[in-house]
Specification:
The chain is built from 12 helices and 7 strands. The protein has 322 residues and is an alpha/beta fold. The chain binds S-adenosylmethionine.
Length: 322
């Protein structure tokens, strides 16, 4: 159970769960600026820069990993691994959307033709601006009001326009978000492609179940969903890694007082997403993120008896509504 969270907490881009949106955007910015990037997010850097100082400045420092490795080589490798993980997940979900809207190059659903997109907890995700959406596509973005406002303002200030019809739905996903979504113009009878990326770990298990029940109710036949599951980590491993990262943070003066793991609900009783969807009218499939990372040559964890098994990492689940 998270010690920093309450059932009705709120935040902006600089506080609490809002800062996690900056961290993942920083990882996308770092990947975009790396040699041979797996993904390109040309807006990530400007979105991160607008938020001021924070631990993400280290993520964008190309020399940081080499310097951290002098203190703790394994912790530095984990840092690299976490950055690569963000790139791999971004690529996976980019391809999910391109397949859903019928991009002829994307397997396996080249003829899906969905034109209604919902990005849950969109944070600083710039897909509504950077993906090549077919004409007539509407992208609904749901997140806390101040997070959405920050993104739209920064991108507008840089003259960046959405590449689809973009609609903001400023609401907490623990509240009556279906009502807000419909008020924003969502069409219940049209198939939808949904994304829950970087979200489930910030919801308690019962809120996760409610979320998928609400999504299912709003999903016409042919709808699709892609989900990053919340990884369940052993308590001892979390504590050990925290101690090691704290040593690096202290050394580099990185202490911004925020412990991201404390914002998450590490809930061992959480429903298995692929099984839940299969039980509720979806054809679902799950890919181990560990396998995706290896496939793309991005697995950077040192192997050894203490390395957690693949199941300690997230799964990427996709499903189609029957
Ligand atoms: N999906 C985005 C991405 O991958 O770039 C953002 C991921 S970020 C790690 C987590 C996001 O979830 C934040 O933008 C946060 O505001 C949002 N979030 C978490 N819990 C939420 C809730 N209950 N209601 C609305 N947004 C929420």
């Amino acid at each position: 159970m998270s010690s920093l969270r309450t059932h009705d907490d709120t935040w902006d881009i600089a506080t609490s769960v809002g800062t996690t949106a900056v961290m993942v955007a920083a990882a996308r910015a770092a990947e975009t600026e790396a040699e041979n990037p797996l993904i390109r997010d040309p807006y990530a850097r400007m979105l991160v820069d607008g938020t001021g100082a924070g631990v993400w400045n280290f993520m964008l420092d190309r020399d940081f990993v080499a310097k951290a490795a002098e203190i703790d080589a394994e912790a530095a490798a984990i840092f690299t691994h976490m950055g690569s993980y963000q790139a791999v997940r971004t690529k996976f979900f980019d391809e999910f959307f391109l397949a859903a809207v019928g991009d002829g190059n994307s397997a396996p659903a080249a003829d899906a033709g969905v034109r209604q997109i919902v990005i849950l907890a969109s944070g600083l995700d710039s897909r509504a601006y950077r993906l090549d959406w077919p004409a007539g596509t509407t992208v609904f973005e749901i997140d806390q009001p101040k997070v959405l406002e920050y993104k739209a303002t920064v991108l507008a200030e840089h003259g960046v326009a959405p590449s689809a019809q973009r609609r903001e739905v400023a609401v907490d996903l623990r509240h009556d978000w279906p009502k807000a979504l419909i008020q924003a113009g969502f069409q219940v009878n049209e198939p939808t492609a949904w994304l829950a990326e970087g979200l489930l770990m910030y919801l308690p298990a019962d809120a996760q179940d409610r979320l998928f029940a609400q999504i299912t109710e709003l999903s016409a036949a042919g709808s699709r969903i892609a989900v990053e599951t919340a990884p369940i980590q052993a308590q001892e491993r979390r504590a050990e890694m925290k101690a090691r990262f704290d040593a690096i943070r202290e050394k580099f003066g990185m202490d911004d007082g925020l412990d991201v793991a404390e914002l998450m609900y590490n809930d061992p009783d959480r429903a298995d997403v692929a099984a839940w969807l299969a039980d509720h009218g979806w054809d679902s499939a799950a890919v181990k993120s560990a396998d995706e990372m290896r496939r793309l040559g991005r697995w950077a964890l040192p192997s050894g008896p203490d390395t957690p098994g693949d199941n300690a990492f997230s799964y990427f689940v996709t499903a189609v509504r029957q």
